[in-house]
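Margin note: ligand = 3,4-dihydroxyphenylalanine.
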Amino acid sequence: MSEAGRLRDQALAAIARASTEPDLEAVEVEYLGRREGKISRQLLSGIAKLAPEQRAALGQEANEARRAVEAALEARRAEQKAAQLADIAQTEAIDVTFPAPPLPRGHIHVLSQVRHELEVIFARIGYTVEEGPEIETDWYNFEALNLPKGHASRDVQETFFLDEAEEVVLRTHTSPVQIRAMQRIGTPPIYIIAPGRVYRRDNLDATHLPYFMQLEGLAIDEGLTVGDLKGTLLYMTQSLFGQERQVRMRPHHFGYTEPSYEFDTMCGRCLGKGCRSCGGAGWLETGGCGMVHPQVLRNGGIDPDRYSGYAWGFGIERMALLKYDVEDLRLFYENDIRFNRQF
Ligand code: DAH
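Resulting structure:
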């Protein structure tokens, strides 16, 4: 056997004995090391002593020996790797039936909850949910609601205008959805609610927000009266707060209703007697309402001689506040999960 063949067999035997990666590395260095490796050195020193025509044969033998050792190293390493994995599978097997730790979860916001509760309450008596854009034209937000330009009740100060001509606004209330609903639905009966975001140029503090949520309601049918309006508000209040809670209506003025009222919810602490939480009044201001003005019906394309309607609007934050005794409106928008989780 050639010297190269003998070295190769030695190396293969050493590889077969090696049981760890360091053992294998030692064999690799011993035989294949670039300068000092036995096979490499045998090649270098051997070649120098040979006649030119014999050099090719020796080179080939040495190369074959090198390739055989390399292949054996690779095979042995693969074996070891497989053994290692089998070991891990044994000792670190995953129990797929083990219960996972709970994931941190969000929470439905209290305003979304109250809004949803109101939607369900009104769905039970046949109201559907209507939506309108938060960016409105002057006509829908004011003009069509009997609030002409220059009218005191427009309260220009509180409006966010989006253009120089002041024709495009962020809606200041959900009332423009009344007009859109009349136009979309056309012929009464119309029974809709329109919850949504509104905007006003108010500075943020405990009792003011530059944007908040309102819920508008509109009913148009033949022969509707103030009695129907009151019954609807009472139904809503008792559904939301309990049977003992009454509703009170006080005369007021809105351009789009005639007659107009503000409505109050009976204080839940004192049930109308007057206590500290209601400032002694026994009642808590809740929203506005009234019988839809004939001109507003006309603006929505509805014949006021045949149909009458009632409407109302209130702040959803205010409702949540009445329900949960929250002291500061800003808490609704800070999105502190510790606050949100309480509801
Ligand atoms: N739009 C009024 C507001 O923002 C609330 C309101 C009052 C809505 C009377 C109505 C209504 O539909 O009839 O304060």
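The two ends are 88 Å apart (CA to CA).
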